[in-house]
Fold this protein.
Amino acid sequence: MRGIPGSMQVLRPRTADEAVEAFAEHPLALPVAGGTDVMVLWNMGLLNDRPVLDLSAVAGWRGVRKAPGGLRVGALTTHAELRDHPEIRRSFPLLAQACAEVGSVQIQNRGTIGGNIANASPAGDTFPALAVYEAKVHARSRHGVRVIPFLDVFAGVKKTVLNQAELISAVELPFLPAKPHRTVFRKVGTRSAQAISKIVAAGLLWLGKGRAVSELRFALGSMAPTVRRLRAVEARVAGRKLGPALVATAVEDAARDVFPIDDIRSTAEYRLAVSRNILRSFLQA
Ligand SMILES: Cc1cc2nc3c(=O)[nH]c(=O)nc-3n(C[C@H](O)[C@H](O)[C@H](O)COP(=O)(O)OP(=O)(O)OC[C@H]3O[C@@H](n4cnc5c(N)ncnc54)[C@H](O)[C@@H]3O)c2cc1C
C-alpha cells in the first residue's frame, strides 16, 4: 500500500485484508471504486482534504463467480461487466437490463455495483432487480463478513446501515427456484441515456396449478427514499388466477406499499400513475 504525500492522501490496498485494515486505521477515508459518484462531489469541492481509499486494485472484489446456490458478484464489478456477463444475462436478466440502462456507456464502464449500492440514491437503477432477486450484500470489516438482506441495507436517502469500518465486498445472488413465467424491467426517465430514473421497476411472476399465481415479486425504485417491494400487491395475487377484477384490485393496492415523493425529477401523482400502468400491463400480460 502506498500513500501519496501532498494535499491528498491516497491509500491503495491490493487485497481485501489490506482494504479493511486501511479503513479501520483511517476511518475518515473516503472509499472510491469507479469514482462516478465521488467525482461529482469532488468537482463541487466537497471532499477537499479527505484521505481517499482507492479500492480499484482489490482484484478479489472484481468479477462474477459461482457460489453455493447462486452467483457471487464482487463489489468492484462494473455495470458493463454485469450487462455483458453470460451467466448474469441467463440467470439474472433483469440485473443485466438494469446495468445496460445506467447513465451512459462511459458510466457503465467505470461505475460499480458496490458503488451503486453504497451511494444509496433513491434512484439506483440496479435496486429493484436486486430486490426481486432477493440479493444479499456482504459487508466486510477487519472482524469478518456481515451478510445483509438487500432491502435492509438502506436506512434512508443516501444512507446505508454499513458501519464505519465496513466496506461492501460482494453481492450474493441466489438462483431462482424455477424460471419465472413472466419478467419485467422498466426505467422511466426524461430520455433514453444519462437520465436519472423517475420510476424504475422490476418484476418476476410464477404461475402454478391451473395458471394461478404461485408467486409475484415486484419492486419499485425512485418512488420513495428507498427501494420498495410491493408486499400488499404480492400477497393479494398469491394463489389466485389473474383476471380483470383481481388485476384492478392489485393495481389499487400499489398505493398501500409505496408513498411516492415529489422531487425535481417528477411528481408523486405521475410516479404513482405510471408505476400502476407498469404493474397493470405486467399482470395483464
Ligand atoms: C453522469 C452520471 C450518470 C449517472 N447515471 C446513473 C443511472 O442512470 N443510474 C444509476 O443507478 N446511477 C447513475 N449514476 C450514479 C453512479 O454512476 C452509480 O451509482 C455507480 O454505480 C457508482 O459506482 P462507482 O463505483 O462509480 O462509485 P463511487 O463514485 O466510487 O462511490 C460511490 C459511493 O459509494 C462508496 N463506495 C464505493 N464503493 C464502495 C464499497 N465497495 N464499499 C463501501 N462504500 C463504497 C463511496 O465512498 C461513495 O460514497 C450516474 C452518475 C453520473 C456521474
The pocket of flavin-adenine dinucleotide is lined by residues 30-38, 40, 55, 75, 102-103, 107, 110-112, 114-116, 118-119, 124-125, 167-168, 194, 196 (CB under 6 Å). The two ends are 54 Å apart (CA to CA).
